[in-house]
Amino acid sequence: MNWLPTLQRRLSALFHKQKLDARMDDEIRSHIDMQTQENIVAGMKPEEARYAALRQFGWVESLKETCRDQRGVGWIEDFGQDIRYGARMLYKYPGFTAIAILTLALGVGANTAIFSVVDAVLLRPLAYPDSGQLVWLCERGPDWSGGSISYPNFTDWRDQQSVFEKFGVYNGNNFTLTGAGEPIRLAGALMSADVFAALRTQPEIGRVFREDEDNPGAPPVAVISHALWQNRFGGQAGILNQTISLSGKAYTILGVMPAGFEFQNSDVWLPVGPYSAQSSWQKRDNHPGLFGLARLKPGVTLEKARVNLDVIAVRLEQQYPESNKTRGVQIDRLLDIQVGNVRRALWILFGAVSFVLVIACANVANLLLARAAAREKEMAVRGALGAGQWRMTRQLLAESGLLALLGAIVGLLFAKGALHVVAALAGESMPRAAEISLDLRVLLFSGLVAVVTGILFGLAPAWHARRADLQGTLKETARGTTSGRAGLRQGLVIAEVALTFVLLVGAGLLLLSFHRLLQVNPGFVADRVLTFQINFPGGKYQTAEQQILFCQALREKLRALPGVLAASLVSQNTIPLHEGGWDMRFLIEGRPEPPPHLQPSLQFHLIAPDYFRVMGIPLFQGRDFTEQDNREHLRGASSGDEWGAGLNSIIIDEEFAKRYWPNQNPLGQRVRIPWGERAKQPVVTIVGVVGRVKENRLSEQGGMVQAYFPMYQQPLGNMAVVVKTTSEPAAMLTTMRQQVSQLDPALPIFGISTMKEMRDHNVAPDRLNLALLGGFAVLALVLAAVGLYGLLSFTVTQRQREIGVRMALGAQRFEVLNLVVGQGMRLVFIGAFIGLLGSFAFTRVLTSVLFNVKPTDPLTFVTVTLSLCVVALLACYIPARRATKIDPMVALRYE
Amino acid sequence: MMKEIPDLLQGTLDLLILKALQLGPMHGFGISTLIRRMSKDVLQVEQGSLYPALYRLEDRGWIESEWGVSENNRKARFYKLTPAGRKQLVEERSNWDRLSTAVNLVLRTT
Q1: Mean pLDDT of B4-20
Q2: Is the minimum CB–CB distance between B72 and chain A shorter than 8 Å?
């Protein structure tokens, strides 16, 4: 049999059902007419002839049915019938339908939202071709990692390795764009030509730089982003070979990357080669913020690459012990580096939200079971009239499938709303957040969830319908309940309570952890402090003296503003709770000098006077820097142009003092910075001791000692301004901006933020986790309470007669209350106990996202148990109260 | 009235219909009349079996149908064999021959 015409015929049979039925009618009529005619010819009277013809034909409707079945599409028509019937049932009970759909929609919606985040952030490959082969490299030591790569190390790794197709380095940088509208700061990256090659992304127009342009002395060239091209150059086609002015230097534009290309959040990419000639970059112990990006050769595993690079690192250790002792290479997949810090939290949330879905399913299954009890007679009658068991099961599954589908559709709308909330809560703390969307994959996922849930909660009543005993049911009055079904319903409620308990414990732990995180003393006072950043564009501010003059003038101007209590300038990494750090080795004068790899490090900060006043950081000993901590002492010296040569004093944090001068006065002690030639190394005197601040994260503990150096002795191209004001600082931003542009109209300010915002931003991931898990827990609690309530209401209705009899026999109101509440609370206790055991198993996964809280925190467990019981009591009390209102007479007469 | 053969062997009705249509396009009433005449009134095809069989054969692609006008100027649905139907007829016919030979062999054994 040829399947294609068959399929065609069947499809047309399906879609032209009416036409075919009409044809059948016509055909039968024509047959009967002919038969009648023949009967008349045979001698019958016309009426008799027609009657005989009809009789001969038999039962026309049954014949039609048989004919329809011959088309081979009967089962689809049955299915359509099931769906129509299901829809009618749902329409007939709008209350039941609304609750079921709402419950499912909450479950499916929450799952869809979280899945779309998990999918976009964790599951989908990065937006580069064949991105699974991309790896990220940095330096590591015995007890640290994530260190930047020194340029000579990079070239040795590159030239000696055999596992990478392409291997380059990059570093993030800021530039001031001038000559194209208002001056603005641009994020940019210096990078090897090989980084573009490794990423395998082609420019939209023009080309990326070639290897010969990635060398010292090559003419300055740049590749720009699509957004920059559109926003600053009007998207003009003639952009190629034009020049772009970045921090006072002109670069020829070679190409524009396509929209959607993302690397280092940058708008411009410059070849790193021309910078590599600087003497500082040629030092093996200098780590100028470079990180590596490479593409593995086809077939090379991450493990193999690690082994290959480790061998090289060991060789370099032996060759250059001064700089490379204990320094190794770390290689990770690029995706892991980008999303590694949120992976665990996202999987935890995904697990939690699937609990919510299971609870929602259990609730709907319970609703369906309750209704199945009410429909038992209908089912029995249909069975008695000859409906097959499979047919009835199918009917019930069609109904639950329809519910699941509607739930999924409403759930998608919920998910869309929920994603906005997630995006708002996550802020910039979620990597790849821009890629999150409700796309086809997510829709498929929701569809799958809907099908699975539909089967899950539809199966229970369908199974029961199968076992229904026809005769018994038809005879039965409202006397008793089928015990098997009651057991199943109780089991579902117990499961709901247990899962809810686990979620509540998780949420409770996160809440406690978040509370403790907010209680952490960051070491500074965040109130009414504003910060913004400025980069010197080069050109006008070549020498240290010029830069210091500008800084002093700016600080004076800002201090003089009404409403400003204090103002200071600092290096950008000084601002507490920032990303990254600037560490530097140091030696204590008068103590034995350890070999380089054992020398301790400090966190390096540059500050102008008054920084501690602005930040409210306590000064424990000695003094703050003043205007007199300047470069006067260099006058007549020859080494003034060496970086850091101007430094002669240092302020240390309490930890520094405690670690190196326990029970001694650190003031007046001298510290050497082993930077460059020994004769030119800065030696600084400790002039003050201040409180410790949280460098990167509120949750950090331990870490490097902190040190501050005078900015007026060693200025910096990239700095931040901090201002303490008398009132809301954001209101003063405009005035401050004016002060800057009065000094230099070509200086853009950026990175504007209050310290309070910085602190909030710092805990954004924790807040997001708490909000989501907390939301799921509350949702679960409500669903479980509704489930419990529903079960008890149903039992009260079913046991109406029994309760009526008890009351007629003298049972007190309290005893009836006890009866119902007791039945409910028994389930709650069993569920809570299972949940308790489950929590010990599950909450362990939370350890890495908890701060200062053990996953078995007893306070949390007790609080959760109590609150669950209170909510459960309430859910039991309402139906129980109704039970006490039963009028024994009415109950007994019922039926 | 003539006797009805209660249960024609499975597939036999199909064979008879295909055979009848081999003589030319025909409507349902014509097919049943023809079978009756050809079998000398022994085989009476019940309408309740005829139409399901016609629809089944059509579904399998062995016959096709279109509206036409009967000898008495009535609108009627005419069926005719498709090439696949002709092949099927040959096959069913040889099946039938094999079967009837076999049955006869059994019955003649004494």
Answers
A1: 71
A2: yes
Residue A58 DSSP class: -
Q: Which residues contact A803 (CB under 8 A, 6 or more apart)?
A: A796, A811, A816, A819, A883, A886, A891
Whether the model clears a pTM of 0.90, i.e. scores above it, the answer is no
Residue A388: predicted pLDDT: 67
Burial class (CB in 10 A: 0-12, 13-18, 19+), A513: buried
Q: What is the DSSP letter of A93?
A: -
Tell me the torsion sign for CA atoms A552, A557, A563, A569: negative
Average pLDDT over residues A115-144: 91
B61 touches chain A (CB under 8 A): yes
Locus of tokens 């459960």? A872
Most confident of A489-493, A831-835, A854-858: A831-835
Residue B6 has pLDDT above 50, yes or no: no
Q: Which residues pair with A583 in a beta bridge?
A: A603
The SS3 call for residue A784 is helix
Which is more confident, A890 or A568? A568
Closest by Cβ to A58, choosing from B48, B59, B77: B48
If interface means Cβ-Cβ distance under 8 Å, which residues of chain A face chain B?
1-2, 5-6, 9-10, 13, 23-24, 26-28, 30-31, 33-35, 37-38, 56-59, 62-63, 66-67, 69-72
Whole-angstrom CA distances from B26 to A472, B19, B30, B50, B82 are 55, 11, 6, 13, 13
Strands (DSSP E) found in A210-282: 221-224, 243-246, 249-256, 268-271
Whose CA is closest to A406, among A116, A107, A92?
Answer: A107
Q: Does B36 touch chain A (CB under 8 A)?
A: no
Among chain A residues, CA nearest to B85 = A1
Residues of B within 8 A of A70 (CB-CB) are 52-53, 55-56, 59
pLDDT value of position A539 = 66
Q: Measured between alpha carbons, how far is residue A226 from residues A14, A182, A197, A251, A267 in Å?
A: 52, 19, 19, 17, 8
Task: Supply the DSSP string of A8-35, one letter for each residue.
Answer: HHHHHHHHTHHHHHHHHHHHHHHHHHHH
Each domain of chain A, given as residue ranges in start order, spans 3-72, 142-326, 342-519+764-893, 538-745
Residue that has been written with the tokens 């230099």 in this structure: A744
β-strands A601-607, B63-69 pairing: unpaired
Q: Is A565 helix (H, G, I), strand (E, B) or coil?
A: strand
Identify the residue whose tokens are 């996160």: A510
Contact state of B52 with A69 under an 8 Å Cβ cutoff: yes
Four-residue CA torsion sign, A45, A49, A50, A55: positive
Contacts of A552 (CB under 8 A, 6+ apart): A627, A712
Q: Are A377 and A471 in contact (CB under 8 A)?
A: no
CA distances from A38 to A53, A557, B33 (A): 9, 117, 10
In this predicted structure, the answer to whether residue A643 has a pLDDT above a threshold of 80 is: no
- List C-alpha distances in Å: A429 to A386, A425, A756: 62, 9, 16
Q: Which of A33, A63, A66 sits opposite B74 (nearest CB)?
A: A33
Going along chain B from its start, the domains and CATH numbers come out as 12-108 (1.10.10.10)
Residue to mutate among A8, A20, A67, A73, with most B CBs inside 10 A, is A67
Helix (H, G, I), strand (E, B) or coil at A706: strand
Residue B98: CA count within 13 A, CB half-sphere: 6
Residue (of A512, A509, A505, A351) closest to A832 by Cα position: A505
A480 pLDDT band (50/70/90 cuts)? very low
Q: Rounded mean pLDDT of A777-801?
A: 88
What is the C-alpha to C-alpha distance for residues A893 and A252, in angstroms, rounded to an integer?
Answer: 96
- Which pLDDT does position A92 carry in this prediction? 85
Q: Quick one: which H or E segment has residue A492?
A: helix A483-519
